[in-house]
C-alpha cells in the first residue's frame, strides 16, 4: 500500500475542469454532478466507483488486446456516437443510460414522473444503441425495467404440449411463486429467457394461471383455453 501511495503522489491532473476539484476531492465532484444533473459526468464517476484502482490495469488490457484490422477483432468497444449508421449481429449495451428501478405500483408511478424529466437526447442515444443489433441484443437490467414500464414483459403464449416436449419445469417460473402449471390448459404463457449485459441470466419459464391473471387481467382466459374433449352426440 505504501508503494502505491508513492506512485499516486506523482500523478498529475491534466484536465482543467477536474483540477478545480482537487481540493474538494472526489466526493465534492460527485455532489456537483448530482446538483447540476450532469449525466455524462455522473456516468464517468460511476465507472470510477465500480472499478476504482483497477482502471489503469483495465485500460492497459484493452490497449494490449487492440488489433489494427476490424475484421480480426472479437469485440468492438465504442460509444453510441461512433456506432451511428452501423449495425452488428450482437450488441451489448452498457448499463450507463437511463435507469429505471423496478418495484411496486407506487414506485412505478414515481418512476414514470422521473422518466418524464429525462432529456430527449438521452432517449435518442438509447434508441440508437439498441437499434444497432441485427440478431441479438444483450440487455442491461435498467433497459429491461424500462421495457417493463412500457408494457413489454417478454411473455409469449405457447401450446402446453410444446412445453411438455421441451421438458420444462411444471412449477411457475415467477419469483417466490410455487404454484404448479395446470395440465388441463391447452395454452400456457412463457417468459422468454434473457441474458443481461452484466453476465447475469434469467432462464425464463412458464407461468401459472394466477400469475397469468395478474399480468393479463381480463384477457387471461384467452391464455388458458382448456383442452377440448370429444363428447358423444346423437344425430
Please state the oligomeric state of the protein chains shown: single chain
Secondary structure class reads alpha+beta
Overall pLDDT:
78
Number of spatially distinct domains = 3
Question: Strand order within the widest sheet?
Answer: 3-4-7
Query: Helical element count?
Result: 11
Our measurement of the CA-to-CA distance between the termini, rounded to an integer number of angstroms, reads 93 Å
Rg to the nearest angstrom? 25 Å
Indicate the low-confidence ranges by residue numbers. 227-235
Helix content: 40-55%
Q: What's the number of extended β-strand segments?
A: 7
- Biggest beta-sheet profile: 3 strands, antiparallel
Query: What amount of the residues lies in strands?
Result: 5-15%
H/E order of the elements?
A: HHHHHHEHHEHEHEEEEH
Globally, the shape reads: elongated
Gist of the model:
This is F-box DNA helicase 1-like. With 235 residues, the protein is an alpha+beta fold. It contains 11 helices and 7 strands.
Amino acid at each position: 500500500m505504501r508503494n502505491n501511495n508513492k506512485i499516486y503522489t506523482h500523478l498529475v491532473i491534466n484536465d482543467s475542469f477536474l483540477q478545480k476539484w482537487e481540493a474538494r476531492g472526489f466526493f465534492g465532484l460527485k455532489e456537483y454532478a448530482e446538483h447540476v444533473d450532469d449525466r455524462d459526468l455522473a456516468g464517468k464517476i460511476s465507472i470510477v466507483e465500480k472499478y476504482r484502482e483497477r482502471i489503469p490495469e483495465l485500460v492497459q488490457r484493452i490497449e494490449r488486446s487492440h488489433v489494427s484490422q476490424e475484421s480480426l477483432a472479437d469485440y468492438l468497444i465504442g460509444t453510441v456516437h461512433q456506432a451511428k449508421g452501423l449495425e452488428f449481429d450482437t450488441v451489448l449495451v452498457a448499463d450507463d443510460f437511463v435507469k429505471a428501478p423496478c418495484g411496486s405500483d407506487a414506485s412505478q408511478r414515481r418512476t414514470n414522473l422521473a422518466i418524464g424529466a429525462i432529456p430527449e437526447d438521452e432517449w435518442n442515444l438509447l434508441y440508437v444503441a439498441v437499434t444497432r443489433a441485427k440478431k441479438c441484443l444483450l440487455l442491461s437490467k435498467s433497459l429491461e425495467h424500462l421495457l417493463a414500464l412500457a408494457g413489454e414483459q417478454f411473455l409469449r403464449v405457447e401450446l402446453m404440449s410444446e412445453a411438455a416436449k421441451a421438458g420444462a419445469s411444471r412449477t411457475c417460473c415467477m419469483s417466490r411463486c410455487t404454484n404448479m402449471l395446470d395440465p388441463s390448459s391447452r395454452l400456457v404463457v412463457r417468459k422468454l429467457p434473457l441474458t443481461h449485459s452484466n453476465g447475469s441470466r434469467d432462464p425464463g419459464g412458464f407461468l401459472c394461471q394466477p400469475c397469468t391473471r395478474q399480468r393479463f387481467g381480463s384477457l387471461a382466459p384467452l391464455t388458458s383455453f382448456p383442452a377440448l374433449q370429444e363428447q358423444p352426440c346423437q344425430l
